[in-house]
Amino acid sequence: MKWIDSIPPTKPTIEKLKNNSFQIIYAGKEKIKGFAVFVLPPNISEKKEYATLIDILVADSKIDFDRTKTIAAKDDRIFIAAIDLNNNISD
Q1: Rounded distance, CA 67 to CA 85, Å?
Q2: Among residues 87, 53, 45, which one has the least CA distance to residue 72?
């Protein structure tokens, strides 16, 4: 559908709070509906198409995230992306 925006939102920033707690912050101009949480095993290339979506965090600009409350294995790498209203995903 040509009228639907296909431009991804700005990627969020991550600030460390405590040991396994982080604050995810979106500062872009486009409205978002939340953040996607992806995981990758340690030896897999860092590409979105190889990642597994494990959670969606509903938020409009920031949210706290506790790594220990995910289903990710201890050595998995976690990546966070913003999701806009048209389901475009940031880097």
Answers
A1: 25
A2: 53
Q: Which helix (H) or strand (E) holds 66?
A: strand 62-66
What is the rounded (10 degree) CA torsion for 48, 6, 82, 32?
Answer: -160
In Å, how far from its chain's centre is CA 50?
14
- 0.85 exceeded by pTM: yes
Strand partners, 80: 37
DSSP letter at 48 equals G
Q: What is the pLDDT of residues 1-30, one digit of tens each?
A: 677 788 999 999 999 998 899 999 999 999
Does residue 65 surpass a pLDDT of 90?
yes
| DSSP-assigned letter for residue 89 | B
